[in-house]
Design goal:
The structure is a single chain. With 118 residues, the protein is mainly alpha-helical. Helix content is 64%, strand content 0%. 18% of the residues are buried.
């Protein structure tokens, strides 16, 4: 039979291995302490401007909208990543959920670092 599939081949819509599922869940769950770290970094950056004025420190953060996005967005990204992982962890491209969450957390860190430069 020329069309018979060999026993070691996986079907086209295969599920990832157990190790891949564990990595997916580890990345998803680690977004929670990652989000906490982003919020702590935000507070550290804010506390660093305690003695500043507009003239002495012209770069005092991303503004009110940026603060709100980082303050509430980072924890929301972590919660959404964990929630979506319940549905996507065993799917072929399920790893994209925690990877995208980590990308968004990295963008938040970059925004904080760039906007608070001295």
């Amino acid at each position: 039979m020329a069309n018979a599939r060999q026993s070691n081949e996986r079907p086209i819509g295969h599920t990832p291995s157990r190790a891949a599922v564990w990595v997916n869940w580890a990345l998803a769950l680690l977004t929670i302490p990652g989000a906490v770290a982003v919020v702590i970094l935000q507070y550290v950056q804010i506390l660093g401007t305690a003695g500043c004025t507009d003239l002495s420190c012209p770069h005092m953060g991303p503004g009110p909208v940026g603060f709100v996005l980082v303050q509430y967005g980072a924890p929301a990204v972590a919660i959404v990543a964990v929630a979506l992982s319940f549905f996507t962890a065993r799917r072929r491209w399920g790893i994209l959920v925690p990877v995208c969450a980590w990308g968004l957390l990295a963008i938040a860190v970059a925004v904080l670092i760039v906007t608070f430069r001295n």
